[in-house]
Amino acid sequence: MKIVIVGGVAGGASAAARARRLDETAEIVVLERGHHPSFANCGLPYYVGGKIESRKKLLVAPVEMLRNRHRLDVRVRSQVTKIDRDRKQVHVSNLETGDQYTESFDKLIIATGASPFRPPIPGIDSSKVLELRDLTDADRMHAIATSGVKRAVIVGAGFIGMEVAENLVLRGIDVTVVELADQILPPWDREMIQPIEKHLGEQGVKVLLGESAIGFQESAGDGLTIQLKSGQSLDADFAVVSIGVRPESQLAVDADIECGPGGGIIVNDSMQTSDPNIYAVGDVTQVSCFVSKTPVQIPLAGPANRQGRIAADHIFGRSSTYRGTQGTAVVGVFGMTAAMTGLSEKLLQRHDMPYEKIYVHPSDHAGYYPGAQGLTLKLLFDPIDGVILGAQCVGTNGVDKRIDVIAMAIQASMTVYDLEEAELCYAPQYGHAKDPINMAGFVASGVLRGDQPVLHVDDIQSKEDSERFLLDVRSEGEFSDGHIPDATNIPLESLREHLAELPSDQPIAAYCKVGQRGYVATRILRQNGFDAANVSGGYTSWMRRSLDSE
Amino acid sequence: MKIVIVGGVAGGASAAARARRLDETAEIVVLERGHHPSFANCGLPYYVGGKIESRKKLLVAPVEMLRNRHRLDVRVRSQVTKIDRDRKQVHVSNLETGDQYTESFDKLIIATGASPFRPPIPGIDSSKVLELRDLTDADRMHAIATSGVKRAVIVGAGFIGMEVAENLVLRGIDVTVVELADQILPPWDREMIQPIEKHLGEQGVKVLLGESAIGFQESAGDGLTIQLKSGQSLDADFAVVSIGVRPESQLAVDADIECGPGGGIIVNDSMQTSDPNIYAVGDVTQVSCFVSKTPVQIPLAGPANRQGRIAADHIFGRSSTYRGTQGTAVVGVFGMTAAMTGLSEKLLQRHDMPYEKIYVHPSDHAGYYPGAQGLTLKLLFDPIDGVILGAQCVGTNGVDKRIDVIAMAIQASMTVYDLEEAELCYAPQYGHAKDPINMAGFVASGVLRGDQPVLHVDDIQSKEDSERFLLDVRSEGEFSDGHIPDATNIPLESLREHLAELPSDQPIAAYCKVGQRGYVATRILRQNGFDAANVSGGYTSWMRRSLDSE
Ligand SMILES: Cc1cc2nc3c(=O)[nH]c(=O)nc-3n(C[C@H](O)[C@H](O)[C@H](O)COP(=O)(O)OP(=O)(O)OC[C@H]3O[C@@H](n4cnc5c(N)ncnc54)[C@H](O)[C@@H]3O)c2cc1C
Ligand SMILES: Cc1cc2nc3c(=O)[nH]c(=O)nc-3n(C[C@H](O)[C@H](O)[C@H](O)COP(=O)(O)OP(=O)(O)OC[C@H]3O[C@@H](n4cnc5c(N)ncnc54)[C@H](O)[C@@H]3O)c2cc1C
Ligand SMILES: CC(C)(COP(=O)(O)OP(=O)(O)OC[C@H]1O[C@@H](n2cnc3c(N)ncnc32)[C@H](O)[C@@H]1OP(=O)(O)O)[C@@H](O)C(=O)NCCC(=O)NCCS
Ligand SMILES: CC(C)(COP(=O)(O)OP(=O)(O)OC[C@H]1O[C@@H](n2cnc3c(N)ncnc32)[C@H](O)[C@@H]1OP(=O)(O)O)[C@@H](O)C(=O)NCCC(=O)NCCS
After folding, report:
1. Phi and psi dihedrals of B179, rounded to 5?
2. pLDDT in tens, B90-140
3. Which atom of ligand 4 is nearest to the CA of A359?
4. What is the DSSP letter of A59?
5. Ligand 4: does its nearest atom lie under 6 Å from the Cβ of A434?
6. Most CB within 10 Å of its CB: which of A248, A337, B406, B455?
């Protein structure tokens, strides 16, 4: 068996190593265009910022290790230029020597990844406009970031843009981020990501939303001017473009291998392309979304690694299959964390999938133990059977933990009722006797059982909603510090004595700070014959919302 | 509907609050013997040590809040002395006034918890022998710990003993821990808990295993002498006895309500006792183990809280049921963490349940990102179908996260094959592209698929195993720094060239530092016709084991 693998990093190297473990006699050729296989893409931003000091640390599995330990025929600086399906061979160009040759295969694995999207903006080819995908990019950015420059503009506020922003600030550089969308970190829902946006500002990073770069111009001296769509322009020493990636699937396209509309190579659950002798894994593929079952391109390292393993398995007759990508992701931004799994609310809307949602704002661990910090957890679920569709969490500590737990629940097709009964680690420095996961389960289950009909701040804001009586059940002090316009304040503790003051012919929206007292008020009111509902996430969610519409 | 609840903390207060939310008109009486309902039992050790400075913080839901917000008739210092099932009433003694009265009920919930076990050791009633269950105990321990004393002896190295040890050290007190078992933290398996034992020593805590207190004697001056079984005796200023708890079920026993052999009140999955009008929740109950389905008494706050909620649900005709306790637990000891879920190896053995196990020793996050620290994860699973039976994890960071994920997997009856495919949060400061969870899944699945037959260090140690050829595949440097006696060193990288030197008629045990290179070696050897197996956890597990038998 001769296996040729194009691309030798996350997906490719994983496939190669697994293939060797499955078969000592196979011939395994790894063709990698770059200088190094198996490097830590995900560490690049932190190398730029100096958190990772040694470049060598980024070389996860150096060539020698892959050769000696796994007997892989790894060839770096070797670019595949063509796939010849009929002859079952690839054309290879040795980038060092310029030599061209062909290499035959029994099975081919395409693991070419995705490349940064570079729109045809005037001036984008300037040497002062950088991107960050590989070690060469990182070397370039490292050099400029440590050269005493003062200002950088980052175009695109996705994962990589955010990580680069943090790391340039670590180098003492003034950073402005320009993002076309109306929020940073577009995979998350907008209201969830607000605290991170605010936090960025507090770190001195300027964020321009709904804005895009339309030109880069090297200015006199050593500078660069970035023209924006709004007419504004920004001066900087350099710019970084990080507005998403595109599957590097040209080889497949040229070989008439089926690709999706986004350019990803279409694969089945054994990672086979439309040509059963050719597999594709990682960022170059279009896979199925685990939740919606629709086609997706989600460029993440975990899926790439596992897909590589599955392709190797299938080549050697194993039955493991890929279940689809859930989209579990995490990003750290100046000490805060955003994580998510499954579908976002906007994707659910785009797919026209019915859903309900709730928010809880608990602390990461018991409030009575020092260091407890707030987090916000949003849960999206099927309004009929309660199956969990997605979750997002933002905070400082314990964020990845909660999303990992829900990621597991989604894998198991669990419902919000299962979250009620989850039995998780509890000691006061780690969580709560009722963990935020349980709490989200309680609230969501209560909504589905009709115990607490739920309203969302967007309902409250909408014009049609002016007929609703807004009841603030927080304390007088909390109320006078700020409240939703037109709300009436009756603190929960005395609500039962003031029922007569409430309208019996008008729907009531009760709210508190985070939703918990609002819920108790809702229970009291409904049992007394009022048509009451609870505002999910309470005033905390309202404040996010109204920041939003500023 | 009139509900009477005996005990007003975790289980009792949760039942009461939930009952009120379900029914505004119910009469709900909470009878609590102590001075406060709803206090943070789990925070008491940290109050003693000063991490929690304000005693007020421990009062999670003060009486006024329960009265005003939930209209609960909470009566503190009110001890129930008898349950009269025929008359459906309880006898109450007001501990302030000495008054006795009866209170009728439609439904009764027993939530009396568990009390520290106090064996009849001479001198145990000395005022210098403390225990820690409630605020009064905590006040006493706080007073003595801040009075300038120098030495304390803790009898019992369970959760509470460990937490008290840490907190007394924080107060500058010299601590010796005496434990009857051959390990600290007996719920964990012995080899897993070794690093914590070592860590305790490094913090200056002396641990005496296989030892017990047989007498306490107040000495001249202000001291206390603790006589030990071995004949040794220890001088201290005070002692703390924390050798486990016993269900406070005497009320139930006296009322002929069925209890199990360990004293726990037997309940069904709606938390009803043998008298359907009487419920029991929390530490006072005997419930079913989620994994083994055998009766267990596991005193934890999460289960108590959820059981209280379920009892209230059932009283009001709701269908929620308790699924059994999994035993998910976590404890922090001087910055290290031990967590577990499901059954331990020793419990599996005790239940005669077939199992297989593997160990992995990855870092909590990507090794190339600063701050990565090792953790050990042990996975126990069904040897036939791979269903997960239990897991234990010990380390510094990310320990509770991994156990929470596996706790969820156990709830969903998932297998080790599901762990292979888990899609978890990954960025270098949070985890790995192949998370320790995936890694444990890979290894366990490889064992079940026969890819890597597994040996354990105990197999290697056993006399019968002298016939096995021990192959160390680490580097020469690692080997010369220490190895398993009688092992032969052939580094993995050159193994393929030295196959001729290996015995073809003898089983081979391959090992490396943690198991990964040993696995690759095993693959190479098996495919070359050798009868090879991999030593799970490698030399790291061996070192634990041999520490163990010192
Ligand atoms: C800066 C940065 C930070 C990231 N952070 C995270 C993170 O925190 N978490 C996360 O989950 N993911 C992260 N990612 C994404 C993650 O790195 C990718 O999802 C993953 O590497 C994809 O693996 P792959 O094998 O598909 O592609 P890659 O790892 O990109 O490997 C593809 C390789 O193929 C080579 N190649 C392409 N075409 C050819 C050809 N014709 N011939 C020969 N070789 C070719 C390329 O040179 C490249 O080295 C990050 C990515 C970047 C760039
Ligand atoms: C120091 C300490 C640390 C702990 N740490 C943790 C931890 O980190 N994580 C964890 O999960 N668990 C921990 N626990 C255990 C946890 O607190 C218990 O599992 C939980 O409180 C049990 O709830 P319960 O309602 O059954 O009993 P309790 O919370 O103990 O409440 C029972 C109440 O009933 C009252 N009572 C008893 N008899 C009568 C009577 N006859 N009449 C009236 N009232 C009566 C008692 O006064 C008591 O207040 C800890 C416990 C202690 C003591
Ligand atoms: C380094 C690289 C080549 C490794 O590939 P790999 O050998 O398949 O993966 P790992 O080193 O993680 O090892 C996993 C294997 O070791 C086994 N293993 C791990 N720990 C083990 C242990 N303690 N005992 C026994 N086996 C163990 C696993 O079972 C698995 O083998 P399997 O797939 O045959 O079941 C590849 O992951 C890579 O190139 N990574 C860097 C690039 C990258 O991922 N970038 C994105 C993230 S920054
Ligand atoms: C304080 C105590 C009385 C609280 O009981 P409780 O009101 O049932 O519990 P919580 O305060 O955690 O609130 C949970 C309720 O609020 C609801 N809730 C929480 N956050 C909400 C939000 N943001 N929006 C809407 N509802 C919310 C939940 O759905 C749940 O209601 P439900 O059970 O009817 O579904 C009880 O837990 C207690 O005594 N605790 C201290 C003792 C203890 O547990 N000790 C051991 C650990 S230290």
Report:
1. -135, 130
2. 999 999 999 999 999 999 999 999 999 999 999 999 999 999 999 999 999
3. 23
4. B
5. yes
6. B406
CB B285 within 8 A of CB B247: yes
Among candidate residues A410, A418, A403, the one with its CA nearest the CA of residue A389: A410
Res. B550 pLDDT band, cuts 50 70 90: very low
Q: CA-CA-CA-CA torsion for A249, A253, A257, A262, nearest 10 degrees? A: 60
Closest CA to ligand 3's atom 4: A14
CB contact under 8 A, B302 and A434: yes
**Per-residue pLDDT at B219:** 87
Is A42 one of the annotated active-site residues of the chain? yes
Give DSSP secondary structure letters for B60-90.
SS-HHHHHHHH--EEESSEEEEEEETTTTEE
Instruction: Tell me what ipTM this predicted complex has.
Output: 0.97
Task: Return the pLDDT at A550.
Answer: 43
Q: From CA A541, how far away is CA B496, in angstroms rounded? A: 62
Q: What is the mean pLDDT of residues A52-56?
A: 97
Residue ranges in B456-496 assigned as alpha helix (H): 457-461, 476-480, 492-495
Question: Which pLDDT band holds residue A459 (cuts at 50, 70, 90)?
Answer: confident
pLDDT (0 to 100) of residue B547? 59
Decide if pLDDT at A463 tops 80. Answer: no
Determine contact, residues A74/A37, Cβ cutoff 8 Å: yes
Report the pLDDT averaged over residues B36-60.
Answer: 97
**Cβ-proximal residues to A210 (8 Å cutoff; 6+ apart), any chain:** A179, A180, A181, A182
| CA gap A137, A116 in Å, rounded | 11
Is the CA virtual torsion B494, B496, B500, B504 positive or negative?
A: positive
Q: Which residues pair with B130 in a beta bridge?
A: B240
Is B350 a residue whose pLDDT tops 90?
yes
Q: Where are the domains of chain B?
A: 2-115+246-316, 129-243, 335-449, 454-547
Residues 138..177 of B with a Cβ closer than 8 Å to A: which? 159, 163
Residue type, position A398, single letter? G
Residues of B in contact with A39 (CB under 8 A): none
The CATH code of the domain at B2-115+246-316 is 3.50.50.60
Q: What are the DSSP calls for A74-130, one per residue?
A: EESSEEEEEEETTTTEEEEEETTT--EEEEE-SEEEE---EEE-----TTTTSTTEE
User: Tens digit of pLDDT for each residue in A179-198?
Assistant: 999 999 999 999 999 999 99
Those residues whose C-beta lies under 8 Å from the C-beta of residue A330, and which sit 6 or more positions away, are: A337, A338, A339, A340, A399, A400, A403, B425, B426, B427, B430
- For the segment B245-279, what is each residue's pLDDT rounded down to a tens digit? 999 999 999 999 999 999 999 999 999 999 999 99
Q: Which CATH class is domain A454-547?
A: alpha beta
Share of chain B above pLDDT 70, in %: 98
- The hierarchical CATH code for the domain A335-449 is 3.50.50.60
Give pLDDT, residue B347.
98
Alpha-carbon distance of B9 to B60, in angstroms, equals 9
Cα distances (angstroms) measured from residue A237 to each of A137, A155, B336, B375: 17, 14, 45, 43
* Predicted pLDDT of residue A467: 84
Domains A2-115+246-316 and A454-547 share a fold: no
Check CB contact of A323 with chain B, cutoff 8 Å. yes
Task: Specify the pLDDT at position A547.
Answer: 59
CATH class for domain B129-243? alpha beta
Residue B428 CA: nearest ligand 3 atom is 48
CA geometry: angle B332, B335, B336, nearest 5 deg: 65
- Identify the residue among A402, A404, A524 best suited for mutation to test binding to B, counting B beta carbons within 10 A and taking the highest: A404
Contact B528 A51 (CB under 8 A): no
Give Dmax over CA atoms of chain A in angstroms. Answer: 89
Q: A207 forms bridges with which residues in the sheet?
A: A177
Q: At what angle do helices A436-448 and A399-411 cross, to 10 degrees?
A: 50
